[in-house]
Amino acid sequence: MRALEGITESPFSLIPLPENPSFNSSLTTQKGGEFFRPRLYNWLFECHGFLHNVFLIACSCAFVLYLAFQAKKSFSKLSNGRSYIMMAYYGCLWLVSMLNLAWCIFQSWECASGKEVAWNILSLFATSGMLFLEVSLVAFLYQGNYASGLEALTRTFVVSGLIVGVDILLKAIYLFGFGVPLFIDSTEHPHHVKWGLWVVHRLVLTAVYGLILFMYHSKWRERLPARPAFYKYIVIMCILNTLSLFACVLTGNGASFGFWLYGATIVCYHALYLPLIYITFLADFFLEEDMHLDNVYYSEMKDAGFFDADWE
User: Fold this and answer.
1) How far is C-alpha 185 from the chain's CA centre?
2) What is the torsional sign of CA 279, 282, 285, 286?
3) Which long-range contacts (CB under 8 A, 24 or more apart) does 291-296 make?
4) Residue ranges of the alpha helices (H) in the chain?
5) Which of 4, 77, 187, 276 meets the CB 3.0–4.6 Å disulfide criterion with 289?
6) Domain chopping of the chain, boundaries
7) Is the pTM value of this prediction over 0.85?
8) Does the structure show a pLDDT above 90 at 173?
9) Cβ distance 56 to 270 under 8 Å?
């Protein structure tokens, strides 16, 4: 017994055993993997699904990259065109595109606990930015063919800012004041107040686009710009908002098909609306600037006598 007590009281028993760094690193890696794997899995499969997230990110990222590749050429054409409205709208398109890209990337926040506030704020600014583009675009084109005066720019931005500001204020009150989950969709916990608000929101937008379509087929069509691109844009947005309105009504009444249809309209809106604006209007403006520059170059060459030999 004394020998055993001597062994236990030996000073060598107090020396700590050396730690195995590979063992510790494997534990850290395992813990990190256990922490990272559920988040990656939830982002890929649980929150809306893999195809939903990849489609949104691919479309929004591709459009931002396209804007980046065309930025130098676009800025040069905007400077030559001297249209303050188009320059301001191009800048707003860049800002909203970045917000929309962030909204598409952080889709997992909608399904993650503790991220509700961050997701609501991001969704509020992203959707409000896109609504600002909608309102201002209708106001821009309603004034005629690419109005360029500072007075027109100020008037359009003030009206659009007031409308979107009221929309942001009302949504913020319902989000943070009454706790209505406007941007968190769930079939397990349907919120009738939320879908009622979205019905009103979509009803107003559908009525606006429907009124413009009615004006195109009435005696007031001369007040609208005679641009086919504007008419096609109004038709597309009227159809999209009508489908979204129908989906909100169905979802508010508990129909699962309405929830699916609403999700499809949201995906189409966030993935394709910004490219639609660029292709339909800004690309048309840039094409007109190219034709204008070609005419200027032709006139300068003609004045310099480059084509005199063709007439002899």
Assistant:
1) 17
2) negative
3) 292/81, 293/80
4) 2-8, 21-41, 50-69, 71-81, 84-105, 116-142, 150-172, 192-216, 228-252, 256-277, 283-303, 308-311
5) 77
6) 51-180, 192-281
7) no
8) yes
9) yes
